[in-house]
Design a protein that fits this description.
InterPro entries: Split_barrel_FMN-bd. There is one protein chain. The chain is α+β, with helices and mostly antiparallel strands and about 190 residues long. It has a domain at about 55-180: Electron Transport, Fmn-binding Protein, Chain A (Pnp Oxidase, Chain A, Roll). Helix content is about 20%, strand content about 30%. It is built from six helices and seven strands, in the order H-H-H-H-E-E-E-E-H-E-E-H-E. The chain has helices spanning about 15-20, 30-35, 40-45, 55-65, 125, 160; strands at about 65-75, 80-85, 100-105, 105-110, 130-135, 140-150, 170-180. It has a seven-stranded antiparallel sheet. It starts with 16 loop residues before the first helix and ends in a 12-residue tail after the last strand. The relative contact order is 0.18.
Length: about 190
């Protein structure tokens, strides 16, 4: 677990950070590099990759992951906190999904209580904050990012809290951005032996 101390970009601290993003404006140097390396057309096509909805394939991918990386801003200084969120276990020891996709624009996940120690992401601190999730399948080299606005939902009745217990610190994420992330440079562990 590492705690990032770099201040977030100004747009992330705005009331609706995903509307404040300047539509992925690229710097002149970036455009020059794309032209020089012959990938300007491909880069332009990639702008359409970012969406605000999850399709069935993405749903199956994120719900099958045993962990995710999460980053959020909170507090007066708007510092960034990064963490790894692992699947929780139910009463008989079976792994619960790390996230549950509710619909194409909403997902939920439970965060373990950390007592607000400042070193881990706390569900209460996420309430109303921008949060970014990264799902990585190291074996297949697949990465997917989901960014959005978090709302703490500790009031869910048991049927709506499933698969987690009622009263759990459940975060609902309204999806603002969802996109595949290049897995080319991702580490690919090799089985031992």
């Amino acid at each position: 677990m590492r705690r990032c101390v770099r201040p977030p970009p100004a747009w992330l601290s705005s009331p609706d950070p995903f509307r404040a993003i300047p539509s992925f404006t690229r710097a002149n140097s970036e455009l020059d590099s794309q032209r020089r390396f012959g990938v300007a057309d491909e880069a332009e096509r990639m702008r359409d990759v970012v969406t605000t909805r999850l399709n069935i394939g993405v749903r199956q991918f994120v719900e099958s992951q045993p962990f995710m990386f999460a980053g959020t801003t909170s507090g007066a200084r708007a510092s960034v906190t990064c963490d790894i969120v692992q699947s929780l276990r139910d009463a008989i020891g079976d792994l619960l999904p790390v996230v549950r996709v509710i619909d194409t624009k909403t997902l939920r996940f439970a965060l373990p209580a950390h007592g607000g120690d400042g070193g881990r992401i706390d569900a209460a601190a996420c309430d109303g904050s921008g949060i970014g999730l990264l799902f990585v399948d190291f074996v297949r080299g697949i990465r997917y990012r989901i960014n959005g606005r978090a709302t703490l939902r500790a009031d869910l009745p048991d049927a709506n809290a499933q698969p987690w217990a009622a009263g759990s610190a459940i975060v609902a994420l309204a999806i603002g951005q969802a996109y595949g992330n290049c897995g080319t440079r991702g580490a690919r562990p090799k089985p031992a032996g």
